[in-house]
Design goal:
The chain has about 450 residues and is of the alpha/beta class. About 35% of the residues lie in helices and about 25% in strands. It folds into two domains: about 150 residues, 2-Layer Sandwich (Alpha-D-Glucose-1,6-Bisphosphate, Chain A, domain 4), CATH 3.30.530; about 290 residues, NAD(P)-binding Rossmann-like Domain (Rossmann fold), CATH 3.40.50. The strands form five sheets. It has a seven-stranded antiparallel β-sheet with strand order 1-7-6-5-4-3-2. A seven-stranded parallel β-sheet has the order 10-9-8-11-12-14-18, sandwiched between helices. α4 packs across α9, α5 packs parallel to α6 and α10 crosses α13.
């Protein structure tokens, strides 16, 4: 059996081939709803090199081992399945120069299914559909990433240090920066490996000399707000995991001989609290309650960096749409069962942002020297929760009218669940738009369709 797909990108053949050779390409090309993970560090496309990754296949995890061949930069490379779910699999990646000097990526796959005729009868159609979804997702991501790379190709590449790199946003951000040819380092708590620096934020330990020479320091860390019930101990951890680590980084980089150009620190739209129908911009005052208190203290912890003249940015993050984690993943099961209807009356405002917009916007504020201060990382079109539920149901082809009572959320998740599900924050990204950022997904339905691979055509 055969499958063919072509993708046209704005970069030339050399740039496009180089993009595929970088380590982050694996994650950026993986469909956004797949939870596949690479095993080992190898990312070479040269003849004889192998790529191993694990991915879910129903209730079990499968291992795929592919061996590369046909390495002919910048024109082609191939991979053959050594071990995996197919009987055979051979994939040829060709990079063709077009008339306008850009690149067309041609994918040609030849494969056979296990169990012979029975495999073709019972699995042929579903495999074809899965391949179509996978390669369309690859096309969308590669096209968008290539354009982002082109937009800033005239600027020098940066040396970037990232804390919180193993989180949902951090994994995609590191992969994007890597494919954009930046030099990316990670701050880690465990034993450091290649391009890693150890720190112990809870103990106030970091070696300042290790931080010399970075152009950008990005801090995405902090215990997950929605991971566990908000006990008194948990609430203290949520606060300290953000303020202590941010203050440690801010004080350390403020004293460096060669300070970074920019310090980017996560924050959240929880800064504004429960505000009903009020339109909230970066000029709006903080709200009242636990989340506003945390976010305000979080942002104030970066003051030493500001005092040292370092351009300091706070990304007030909203609900980031990613099918592999975070709030959207928790919504999917009840929505797929037809139980993802309005929470309470469903009138509360949900501010959201597509994962790619989250990544591209961080890149935008980092690369745009005029950006400084707080920015709302949210779509320009927030929706009421009942509309969010309705659109998610539409994308999944499931009913979404059965209401979810607030007391049920309280019973299952306590105060944390009720706050996150029922607080109303109609947040607008005024400063981000004014700085020149252009959203990939300004409205909800296309963003959800891309995140879930449920396109109309």
């Amino acid at each position: 059996m055969e499958y063919n797909h072509s993708t046209k990108v704005v970069t030339n053949v050399e740039e496009t081939f180089a993009w595929h050779e970088r380590k982050g390409a694996f994650r950026r090309l993986m469909p956004p709803w797949e939870t596949a993970e690479q095993v080992g560090e190898s990312s070479s496309l040269e003849n004889g090199s192998r790529l191993t990754f694990k991915f879910p296949m129903g209730p079990i995890k499968m291992k795929w081992i592919a061996e590369h061949s046909g390495y002919n930069p910048p024109h082609a490379f191939e991979d053959t399945m050594v071990s995996g779910p197919f009987k055979t699999w051979h994939h040829v990646h060709s990079f063709v120069e077009t008339e306008d000097g850009t690149c067309r990526v041609d994918d040609h796959v030849e494969y056979t299914l296990p169990m012979g005729v029975l495999g073709r009868i019972f699995g042929g159609g579903s495999i074809k559909r899965r391949l179509t979804r996978m390669f369309r997702a690859r096309e969308i991501r590669l096209t968008k990433d290539a354009k982002r790379y082109k937009d800033f190709a005239h600027m020098e590449r940066k040396r970037i240090l990232i804390a919180g790199s193993s989180g949902l946003i951090g994994r995609q951000l590191i992969a994007f920066f890597d494919t954009a040819d930046h030099e990316v380092w990670r701050l880690v708590r465990g034993t450091p490996g290649k391009n890693q620096i150890q720190w112990k934020p809870s103990e106030g330990e970091i070696n300042p000399q290790d931080l010399e020479g970075f152009d950008a320091v990005i801090h995405l860390g902090g215990a997950g707000i929605g991971d566990k019930r908000w006990t008194k101990k948990r609430m203290e951890l949520l606060r300290e995991s953000r303020t202590q680590s941010t203050e440690l980084l801010a004080k350390t980089i403020a004293q460096l001989e060669k300070k970074p150009e920019v310090f980017i620190v996560s924050s959240a739209i929880g800064f504004y609290g429960n505000r009903g129908d009020e339109e909230l911009t970066e000029e709006s005052p903080r709200g009242e309650g636990f989340l506003p208190d945390i976010c305000d203290a979080w942002e104030q912890s970066a003051q030493p960096a500001r005092d040292a003249g370092i351009r300091t940015i706070h990304c007030r993050t909203s609900l980031v749409l990613d099918a592999t984690g975070g709030a959207l993943k928790k919504m999917l099961l009840p929505a797929q069962l037809g139980a993802g209807g309005p929470i309470g009356w469903g009138k509360q405002w949900y501010s959201w942002m597509a994962m790619d917009d989250q990544v591209y916007a961080i890149d935008h504020v980092m690369m745009t020297k005029e950006c400084n201060g707080a920015y709302n990382f949210s779509s320009p079109n927030p929706v009421r929760q009942k509309i969010f539920a309705k659109i998610l149901g539409k994308v999944l082809w499931r009913p979404s009218f059965i209401p979810v009572p607030t007391f049920g959320i309280w019973f299952l998740l306590g105060k944390m669940g009720v706050t996150l599900a029922t607080d109303s924050s109609k947040v607008l990204p005024n400063r981000l738009v004014e700085s020149g950022y252009e959203f990939q997904y300004a409205t909800l339905e296309p963003a959800l369709r891309d995140a879930l691979g449920k396109w109309n055509d």
